[in-house]
Amino acid sequence: MSHKSFEEISIENSEFGSQNTFPYYLSRKKGRRRSSLLRKKCRLVRRVVRKSGKSSIFQKNDSFRLYRYCLDLVNTIINSQWKWTMLFLSVIFILTWFIFACLWMLISIENKDFDETNMEPCLGGVQGFAGYLLFSIETQSSIGYGNRYINHYCPEAIFLMCVQIGTGICICGSLICIVYAKMIGPNRLHSTNCFTKHAVINQRDGNLCLIFRIRDSGGRYGCLTKVSAYLVQKKRESLADDVALKSIKLEAFGILIWPVEVVHVIDETSPFWDLSAKDLIVKRFEIIVEMEGTCATTSLPSKTITSYLSREIMWGHRYQPCVFYDKNKKSFIVNRNFFNKTEEVLTPLCSAKRLQEVYMDLSSSENNPFTSTENTNLFSSPSTTLSPVTVYDDDIKKAYETSYSSSSDDEDDGFTCEGLCMKELSTDNLYKSLDNFVVENAKTKKTIIDEHHCKYNETAF
C-alpha cells in the first residue's frame, strides 16, 4: 500500500468537498518543539537571591503587608518601577486639584455666588465646576488667575488659598525628593554589572581558593568599600527545608579603582574544606555576595547583592586579565569585554582537605622519594596522585642533605643535584629533574630510586 502525502490527500478531499458542496481539508498540526536553549532558560531555579539582586523570599499569609507598605510609602515608591512612580505622581496632583476645586465650590455655594442678585461674590469670574477646577490648578501651580479673582472681604477663601499653596509646595518638594532619590539610586541591573557571572576555584600558593571578581562601574562604591559573603545550604540533620547561613571569610582586596578579585582561601575553617570537583556537581548550595560602599561625589551609601549557585562556580578556571597598560596613552586601560571571561588552568580535582593530606604524605620521610636506603618500600607511591605538588627550597635542601649523609665517607660523592636546590619546582619539573640525577653504584651500598616516582602521572589533572 502506497503512502500518500498530505498534499495529495488535501487535493482529493477538496475535490470530494466540491462535489458535495462543502470543502474538507486534511492537515496535521505540528507541535513546536522548543530548543534546548529555550528550555534551559525556562527552567526554574531555586535560589534565595537572584542575579539581579532581587530577593526571592515572600511572606505567606501576611494580612498586614499592604498596611506596612502604606506606612513606609516613601521607600515603597522609590523601590517601585518608574511607571508606578509616575502614575502615583499623576494621581496625587489630580486628586489635590479636584479636592480643592470642590472646596472652592463649597465656599461659593456658602456665599451664594450663584445668585445673580449678589453683587459681591466671593470668587469672581468663575462659572461652573470647570472654572473652579481651573481656579484650583492656577492657585496650586501659581501661574496666575487671569479674569478669575478672590474678593478681599471673603476670609475663608483667603485661608483656603494659603492652605492650597502650602499643600502644593509640600507635595512638589516631596515628589521631587522621591524622583531624585530614585534617579541617583542604582538600577535593577547594577548587580549584574558589579559582579561576574561565574565564580571560579583554582590553586594559589598551594591552597585552593574561591574567587570572584567585582568592579565599581558607576562610581558608587569608591569609599569605605566592604564585601561580605555568606553560604546558604540545607541542613543535613533537618528533614524539612531548613537552611543554614554561614559567613565566609574573605581576604582584603585593596582599593576598588579597577576590577579586583576577591579571594576566599579554602582552609580548615572554610565550609568548603571537604568540597571536591565531584561534590561541586552533586551538591546544591548558594553563595550570597554583598557589596557596600559610599559614593565619593554625593556621599550617599550604596549596596548591591548577588548570588552564585553551585553550578555557577567553575572548577579549574581563572579570570583573564582585563587591565592593560597602553604605552601610547601612558595609562591603564580597563577592557570590559574581559570582565567575565575565564580560562582553564591546572587545578587539583580533590578537596582541600585531601590536598593537604597529599602534601603531608609527600613531605614525610616515609614517602620521601629522595631517601637513599636499601628498602625499596620506602619509595612506594604516595596515597594519591590527584594533585600537583610544589616542592620548596627548604624541603629540597633537607632531602638533599639526607641523601648526602646516607653515604659513607669512603664513597664517591656521585649523587649530585644541579640547580635543584636553588628554585621552586612543580611536580612536573621535579620528576623531570629526578631523571637527570646521577646515580652511581658505591662499593658497599647501592642507591635505588624507584622509577615510579620518576614518571609524571598525567591523570592527576
Automatic annotation (TrEMBL):
For this chain, one GO molecular function annotation is: inward rectifier potassium channel activity
Q: Which UniProt keywords apply?
A: Ion channel, Ion transport, Membrane, Potassium, Potassium transport, Transmembrane, Transmembrane helix, Transport, Voltage-gated channel
| Start and end residues of each Inward rectifier potassium channel C-terminal domain | 195-358
| The UniProt record lists the keyword Hydrolase | no
Protein name as annotated: Uncharacterized protein
Cellular compartments annotated: Membrane
Q: Which InterPro entries match?
A: Ig_E-set, IRK_C, K_chnl_inward-rec_Kir, K_chnl_inward-rec_Kir_cyto, Kir_TM
Task: Give the GO terms filed under biological process for this record.
Answer: potassium ion import across plasma membrane; regulation of monoatomic ion transmembrane transport
